[in-house]
Design goal:
13 helices
Amino acid sequence: MSALAPARAIARHPEFRRGARDMLNLSLGVAAWGLVTGVAMVKNDLPVPLAVLMSLLVFAGSAQLTAIPLIASGAPIWVVWATALCINLRFVIFSAMWRPYFAHLPRWQRCLVGYVSGDLNYVMFMKRFPDAGPVPEQLPYFWGGVTMNWVAWQGSSMAGIALANVIPVEWGLGFAGVLALLGITCSMLQDKATWLACGTAAAAAVAAYALPLKLNILVAIAAAVAVGLAIEAAEQAHRRSRARREESTR
């Protein structure tokens, strides 16, 4: 029973409810995305048990939606893995940004945090706690948000898997999924750097559209990462230059 005490304390913390409430406003888009993903897995002839397992273990909607057509088309496994890996590279950046907040946690807790974290959780968490460094309110807020996100995703994904054979294609769920992804993406465009990286990725994806096996997605990701790294390097150089100028004027 004592092992459950920390979990109960987190769930009863006011910040847990605040995190869940903040994610509740976004859960409709997450649910639409999850429903589309569940339907897509079954419609692409993925067995139901495997679709359920993929939803629970992978827990990465963009990677799932990208990998499913590749699997269905018989793409080489290395292409499937490479595509999913490139799409999820953003979580490396998220992990680096979360390090000042969660580095003090035991390894198993950090692994659990990595599994349940999502794009919107990252955005909402950084808005709530812009100053790096651990404080007691952070972990309850994080778990409130990721719990709401996980429930919204898994519930809608399981519904899509269960109802895939009775949902007509004419409903245009694929377009609904695109709209959900677009809404989530737009919520993450907060500065010039992200807008520039997004625009570069879109242009690269269109320019490389003729490539087979949807490799234009890999091209778009590589272009966006390159632009992001270049912007980050330029900003660091600018900060160092400004620091030197300020030091010289003292």
